[in-house]
Amino acid sequence: MKFVQSIEQPFPVLSPELLDLAHWMEQYYAAGLPEILELMIPAAVRKGMRVQERTFIALSRRATPEEMAELRRRAPQQAKLYRFIADQSSRDGFVKAELCKRLKVSTAAVSGLVKKELLREFQGRLEREAYNDGIAGGEHVQAVAHALNAEQQAAADSLIKSLSDGCYRTHLLQGVTGSGKTEVYLQVLRAALQNEGGAIFLVPEVALTPQTVARLRARLEQESGVKVVVWHSHLSDGERYDAWYALATGAARVVVGARSAIFAPVRNLRLIVVDEEHEPAFKQEESPRYHGRDVAVYRSFLQRCLCVLGSATPSLESVHNASIGKYRLNVMRQRVVDRQLPIMHVVDMKREVRGKGQKSGVFSRFLLDRLQERLERKEQSILFINRRGYDASLNCQQCGHVEMCEHCAVSMTHHKAEGLLRCHMCGAERAVPRHCPQCQSPDIHYKGSGTQKVEDIATKLLPKARIVRIDADTMQKRHLFRTVLDEFRKGKIDILVGTQMIAKGLDFPNVTLVGLIDADISLHLPDFRASERTFQLLVQVAGRAGRGDQPGEVVVQTFLPYAPPVQFARRQDFDDFALEELELRKQFGYPPYRHIIHHIIRGTNEDKVVWYSEQWVKFIEPRLQASFPGIEIRGPAPCPIPKIKNLYRFQVWYFTDNVSRLVAELQQLRSQFQWDPNLANVLDVDAVNLI
Ligand code: ADP
Ligand code: ZN
Ligand code: ZN
């Protein structure tokens, strides 16, 4: 027994609810408790970081004109400092050291002014705030609330009703793109914040949804006077500590952030919103492999609060949960102020390539004409292609050789802008060969297009257009994305070319045309969710068009114009798409009808990976079949990408109705099985990425 000497924090770092949540995640996701707690308690808190105190200076009283004249004559530095501070309306004051450095004045100037009682000095807490750099990021922040239309009002009423019941409930808010979901969230948030309530708002990625973040922030801080904390993976230790501390002490009551914000220590939690709930970005692809949306639902359950999942294209898991009554469904079918959903044209590229289309094969005549038209009308366009680089692969026309990464089982992508080949799995780079390395033939064919090629060809075909490309290669610096969006909003850019990075939640009223260059990339994924992903992509990118007064048009280029997701998306027919796709999932016993646990076994020695995978399945099959009637085990089989970063990868799939019990059993069996120490094997519960 020891005496308590001092109290480190005036409150516990984990609430009982978060601890319960951690235990549930440990069991459900087969994860280690320490790594879960690391998500909940930021490193800075664990390391015992403290609130940073600084010396601040602020105006104490106004100088008289005589005093001012005197200052200017006798002490120009003091005059400069005084004038700067007096001109700013900030009541909070400035950090003394920083301001002196910025204005290039000595601290003696401060002392001089303090002595004259024009300034005062005080100790204060330093707020390290992310994104406080004054770049607008293309957001035109809506300062005043809109009067809700009938559909929005009905949804908001229903949500606020559940909120005021004060018990656990999940709603699925399914509203077409541009139906004004954010406005509905804001109404519910406002209700939740009354009487010291708190809220969590999750977005797929903070950096890619700057408009949503800015809107929420501006409106909540204005209307409810509540401080909003923005939470994302690029926060420095200090910023994260401050954000965490503000929430834990109740100084801030709302957090807007990516998936890990679900663990924020918000007090009096009344509401969790998951915007774009269908986004795969909510799933963490490293241990603990949790799904932010599902954790949100469970945390709401533990805290007896309201959870709102919103999307124009909800995941089939959520649609299913709504249809069996686990979630309540609210639908908004109309865009606000009678704006029409864009018209979607599907262009059959088979006919374009055979016919009089472009030699490049990138643009159909149809799309090109429409781009031209937009330039003439001074409207803006967005072009999507979900691949970086210039050409997707290099193939030898003589021997069929394909340039592959030496570490991964994927082809190298040609990056013309950087003049090299690059692997999109591991980032390895190599020079572009002039001859086939197998047969020395110079006859190398470049296949498939990426963002660089689209940008390049568009520049050649539309020389007058101002075109900017946005992808992970050009957006190395994080402020660049918001800078480009800002220029786009100001009309300094005609055509934005980009990957899915620009598909999320952007709202630019002057965009009247969206082109999807190659809809087939996502259709061909070796994943049972390929149709769902394609449908979502089409509807979401289409949703960027026609958000202002002019109606929008969408052009989808594909070699498979009659593929069901393309046709359902063309008609914006979510309900029938879901119905048909769910029927297929049911027949095959895929999620949402059963849970999937994806078991990956990997190692540097291919033979060992294969052998141990086979032995493992032989070991578990009789044991599991006995205690889990109806369980289905598939594999072992190579993963769709059988080698990544020099690790060979095999997989086993388990389909089950009862995740918790099966995970417990698998954990037990895994500890009994004699694994080779050089192999790693991981369980991915409710796996999203099956590649
Ligand atoms: P969603 O998230 O459903 O795609 P948003 O919430 O971004 O839609 O709303 C689309 C646009 O319509 C925004 O610019 C928003 O300010 C505006 N808006 C929302 N509700 C209304 C309304 N009731 N009347 C007029 N404009 C609205
Ligand atoms: Zn060859
Ligand atoms: Zn590689």
Q: Based on DSSP secondary structure assignment, what is the total number of beta strands?
A: 25
- Level-2 CATH architecture of the largest domain: 3-Layer(aba) Sandwich
Question: What ranges have pLDDT less than 50 throughout 5 or more consecutive residues?
Answer: 130-140
Average of the residue pLDDT scores: 88
Cα-atom Rg, whole angstroms?
A: 28 Å
Can you characterise this structure?
By secondary structure, the protein is α/β, with parallel strands linked by helices. The protein has four domains: 52-126; 138-337, P-loop containing nucleotide triphosphate hydrolases (Rossmann fold, 3-Layer(aba) Sandwich), CATH 3.40.50.300; 339-390 and 449-582, P-loop containing nucleotide triphosphate hydrolases (Rossmann fold, 3-Layer(aba) Sandwich); 595-685, 2-Layer Sandwich (Alpha-Beta Plaits). It is built from 23 helices and 25 strands. The strands form six sheets. The protein has a seven-stranded parallel beta sheet with strand order 6-7-5-8-9-4-10, sandwiched between helices. Strand 6, helix 11 (237-249) and strand 7 form a beta-alpha-beta unit. Helix 1 crosses helix 12 (292-303). The two termini are 54 Å apart. The model is unreliable at 130-140 (pLDDT under 50). The chain binds adenosine-5'-diphosphate and zinc ion (2 copies). One zinc ion binds next to loops.
